[in-house]
Amino acid sequence: MRPFTQHQGLVVPLDRANVDTDAIIPKQFLKSIKRTGFGPNAFDEWRYLDHGEPGMDNSKRPLNPEFVLNQSRYQDASVLLARENFGCGSSREHAPWALEDYGFRAIIAPSYADIFYNNCFKNGLLPIVLPAVVVDQLFRETVAAEGYALTVDLAAQTVVTPSGEIFAFEVDGERKNRLLNGLDDIGLTLKFVDRIKAYEMQRKQLTPWLFN
Amino acid sequence: MPRTLYDKLWDAHAVHVEPDGMTLLYIDRQLVHEVTSPQAFEGLKINGRKPWRIDALLATPDHNVPTTDRHAGITDPVSRTQVETLDANCHDFGLTEFVMNDPRQGIVHVIGPEQGFTQPGVTLVCGDSHTSTHGAFAALAFGIGTSEVEHVMATQCLWQKKSGSMLVKVEGALAKGVTAKDIALAVIGRIGTAGGTGYAIEFGGSAIRALSMEGRMTLCNMAIEAGARAGMVAADAKTIDYMKDRPYGPKGVQWDAAVAYWHTLVSDEGAHFDAVVELNAAEIKPQVTWGTSPEMVVAVDGRVPDPAEAPNAVKKADWERALQYMGLNAHTPISEITVDKVFIGSCTNSRIEDLWEAAEVVRVLAGSGHKVAANVKLAMVVPGSGLVKAQAEAEGLDAIFREAGFEWREPGCSMCLAMNADRLESGERCASTSNRNFEGRQGQGGRTHLVSPAMAAAAAMYGHFVDVREVML
Ligand code: SF4
């Protein structure tokens, strides 16, 4: 996994609540057995005017000019500004894969759906929670100023605006450590192998019917 | 100190706790399907790892499988590759898999309980958000992402932080024709799709105890739509009865030990919940969603709401967008909404009891000369598993449906998410017993109204929504 330390990037405002993972990556693209290549189909149904299917040449498809990601001022955005309950719906990890593959490194929203939030950390994507009033302010500033970029510092747990305003955010210590260092989760867990085995022995005696 | 059911399940599975509360949780069971597993198996292969315990894994393809003639195989090459990849991975790693043409194949959340693979007191995960279904068995069950699927396969554990606890208490008796699905939608209508975020919900109260195991599964299935990590119901005599003679369940002396343990799987008297929501069962009416989120729901005798009456500006914009997508006007009575298709199926409502409920409505209406209404292009029943299908056929339910004009299909996820050939065309409106009405969920541009099996059956016969309580008088 790619480590995340500090990132400065252009912000794109996605002004909708309850954006679900079906919207982030529609189900027809879930048929892939790979982890990569989902970026061109991120937000497919909103981004293109035609119906997308796997294997299409996305560069030839008609873009929806209304959709915010398609506006020229937001090209190459890497920070996604979103509303409450972002990433609700299906548990598909293809959603963070698509966002990461598109080029996003961080998301800022007042709240996330639980599974999506977890999945982001496994993929070098930082989901930042800021209070709704702050997110409102960032929406206003992003829309008002073309080229609006934010600096995200994971070690310091801050988001810094172009005018130098600093917003602190919370992140769980263990998740932060893993993301900062790009650590392999399974490798780390396997350091606990003796404890897991000891637990399992005990469990076998208490609930032997679960080990048939 | 008195503990909640959630506390008990959590404590019993904690292998190691970090100072900040991050817990290495032991996972007893994992269900595997073709969509969220290929990258996990690939990860194991790349790193030269093996599953920790293959007896803790059970796999089946469900999302991509066709619901019509299976002898022809899967026509869509991409879907076929995904199912074949699951077959190959299960073969290579030695997992038990109910392949597409196995009579036990079905939706993961239907076959787990049916096989007794899901048991009271276990931790159970699957790369699928509706894993919350299995909490009906006083189990801690939740959906995970593909990286976590791989993590559980490799280590039999997951890093988790404990959620808050919420008690949703439903007291009283449901009216005839009102079901677990209506309780689920009413709860979501009350607390919102993010109302359960950060919580594990326990459903309790006399109305929940009165539900069958199937009803409890429907309810826990939809806990995720309220944003909760997990849903659960305490164990009781019904839970234990259901477990009898299940292929993967305990037998002989182990059965007695298991039952003794299962009896402890209840919240202690006086246990503390971080949040409590109370509903009166008698006040719950059949529910119909009108929008693009399960919280956009009203009773069947209600009307499509007016965005002008939304509680805040963000919601107002959401409601407006939803009405536009759904092609509905504010104030339209729900009973005037006509449907093009009807889908009875999905891990929410495709078990035998759901089919009984739907078939009963069809039988009553067929008795007075009704068939599927002329404006309904397709009404389909998709059983949750091959075993549900076989039982329904043995009981003659398929004939009731077929004679009225329904299609009777092979088991799978089908039009719940339209990954196979079953889908809505743009602009088509569907009465669906599934769990999500998001934009495009059942096909791009498709319009989904979530309802109970009885309500879906009645909508098929009338061509529009009707109050099933009146039909069943
Ligand atoms: S039936 Fe629908 S919700 Fe259930 S597992 Fe299948 S796709 Fe997911």
Task: Produce a short descriptive summary.
Chain A is of the alpha/beta class.
Going by helix content, strand content and strand pairing, the class of chain B is alpha/beta
The geometry of chain A reads as globular
Mean pLDDT of chain B: 96
| Radius of gyration based on Cα positions of chain B | 21 Å
Number of strands of chain A: 7
Strand order of the largest sheet of chain B: 5-4-3-6-7
Proportion of beta-strand residues of chain B: 15-25%
What does the largest sheet of chain A look like? 7 strands, mixed
Largest interface: A-B, 57 and 76 residues
Rg on CA atoms of chain A, Å: 20 Å
Structural notes for this entry:
The complex is a heterodimer of chains A (212) and B (473). Chain A has 212 residues and is an alpha/beta fold. Chain A is 31% helix and 14% strand. Chain A has helices at 21-24, 44-47, 94-102, 114-121, 132-144, 173-181, 185-189, 193-206, and strands at residues 6-13, 79-81, 106-109, 126-129, 149-153, 158-160, 166-168. Chain A has a 7-stranded mixed β-sheet with strand order 4-3-2-1-5-6-7. In chain A, β3 (106-109), α4 (114-121) and β4 (126-129) form a beta-alpha-beta unit. The longest helix of chain A is centred in the C-terminal third of the chain and has 14 residues, at 193-206. The mean pLDDT of chain A is 95. Chain B is 33% helix and 16% strand. A 5-stranded parallel β-sheet of chain B has the order 5-4-3-6-7, with helices on both faces. A 5-stranded parallel β-sheet of chain B has the order 17-16-15-18-19. The mean pLDDT of chain B is 96. In chain B, α6 packs parallel to α8 (213-221). The termini of chain B are far apart. Chain B has helices at residues 5-13, 38-46, 77-93, 108-115, 146-155, 180-191, 206-209, 213-221, 237-243, 252-262, 313-326, 352-367, 386-394, 397-404, 453-462, 468-471, and strands at 14-17, 23-26, 29-32, 57-59, 96-97, 123-126, 140-143, 157-160, 164-171, 199-204, 230-233, 275-280, 287-289, 297-299, 341-344, 378-381, 407-408, 429-432, 447-450. The radius of gyration of chain B is 21 Å and the shape is globular. Chain B is α/β, with parallel strands linked by helices and 473 residues long. In chain B, β4 (57-59), α3 and β5 form a beta-alpha-beta unit. At the A-B interface, α4, α7 and α8 of A face α2, α3, α5, α10 and α11 of B. Residues 62-63, 107, 109, 128, 130, 346-347, 413, 416-417, 434-435 of chain B line the site of iron/sulfur cluster. Iron/sulfur cluster binds next to loops of chain B.
